[in-house]
Amino acid sequence: MSSVVVDTDVVSFVFKNYPIGRQYDGDLADRTLIVSFMTLAELDRWTSQSNWSEARRNWLRLYLAPFVLVPYGRALS
Questions:
Q1: 8 A C-beta contact, residue 8 and residue 42
Q2: Residue partners of 52: CB distance under 8 A and separation at least 6
Q3: Which residues on neighbouring strands pair with residue 5, listed in sequence order?
Q4: What is this structure's pTM?
Q5: pLDDT of the chain along its 77 residues, tens only?
């Protein structure tokens, strides 16, 4: 199975079920989905700024659970 790094905006569009998110379905299907540590930080900030309930934050955590997280490291920089 191939993998693809998923940008914060794409995660947001697909998670929120926006029509534009459907444009990425073919690119994401049957692949290992990867997010960077920065995408995770941006999504956490987004939920905090938007005053999401704990239940909705948990929904996002569950959605992101299958994604592979690329952690920060000097080698990555």
A1: yes
A2: 60
A3: 34
A4: 0.85
A5: 899 999 999 999 999 999 999 999 999 999 999 999 999 999 999 999 999 999 999 999 999 999 999 988 887 66
